Amino acid sequence: MTTPTISVRGIEKSYKDLKVLRGVDFDVERGSIFALLGSNGAGKTTMVRILATLLKADAGTASVRGFDVAAEPLKVRESISLTGQFAAVDEILSGRENLVLVAKLRHLPDPGRVADDLLKRFRLTEAGARKAGTYSGGMRRRLDIAMSLVGDPEVIYLDEPTTGLDPEARIEVWEVVKELAGNGTTVVLTTQYLDEAEQLADRIAILHQGRIIANGTLAELKQLLPAAKVEYVEKQPTLEEIFLALVGPSTTPAAEDERKDAA
């Protein structure tokens, strides 16, 4: 068996009398998408902050690529990147300038080339010279994830990456996440959207009241319930399906630019 990229054992965390994590255990394999699913306040963000060395656990151990997050935080930070719930782009700078800035902060050679490569990869080349403040929600989130990938981290944490996005923008982000895993990046995704975990994750862990109450593939989790009964009912389209059918496929960056210019 291969060694997991991320290993978590018995993690506990409290804020005064509030117990947020009560002994969390899970592993994440290299190049996989691991979804940590839970309602608001379940402890998802706290767990990610511990894995990102931004917060110390009260008990338990966690390692990333074999490095202990408490004992070797610098080694861990060399391997990871974190994208929070809200896009951390500088709205005054252009998309390209945001990427160049991060590349310079990470002391990478040829920051301009790094920026141009990521703009192309995330379909933002035509919008690269525009201020990030003019970007749509989906474009801002794509830029935010692109900034997280400067330096090619092996592990990326996406904390509620599609919160507040419209249906088209959510699908854009889903495509990006799938591409990341396809290129070998290990992705830890926290979300409260069930369909998001269903669409993206190789494994899903459900965090409830500070504990993992289920962990497995979608097929394994479905086996926890009684066998499905076959019933013939009229299937009505969801509102999201209606919306996407009416507006068509996601707009390209060029079309987005034309729409904004016309507005």
Secondary-structure topology with pairs:
Layout: E1 6-15, E2 18-28, E3 33-37, H1 44-51, E4 59-64, E5 67-68, H2 73-77, E6 80-83, H3 95-105, H4 111-121, H5 137-148, E7 155-159, H6 167-182, E8 186-191, H7 194-200, E9 203-208, E10 211-216, H8 218-222, H9 239-247, H10 253-262
Parallel strand pairs: 3-8, 3-9, 6-7, 7-8
Antiparallel strand pairs: 1-2, 1-4, 4-5, 9-10
Please state the overall shape, judged from the principal axes of the Cα atoms.
Answer: globular
Which regions have little confidence, pLDDT < 50, spanning 5+ residues?
A: none
- Shape-level CATH architecture: 3-Layer(aba) Sandwich
Give the neighbour order of strands across the main sheet. 6-7-8-3-9-10
CATH class: Alpha Beta
Number of helices: 10
| Cα-to-Cα separation, first versus last residue | 56 Å
The portion of residues forming beta strands comes to 15-25%
User: What integer is the average pLDDT?
Assistant: 86
* Quaternary organisation of the protein chains: single chain
Radius of gyration: 20 Å
Q: State the share of residues found in helices, binned by percent.
A: 25-40%
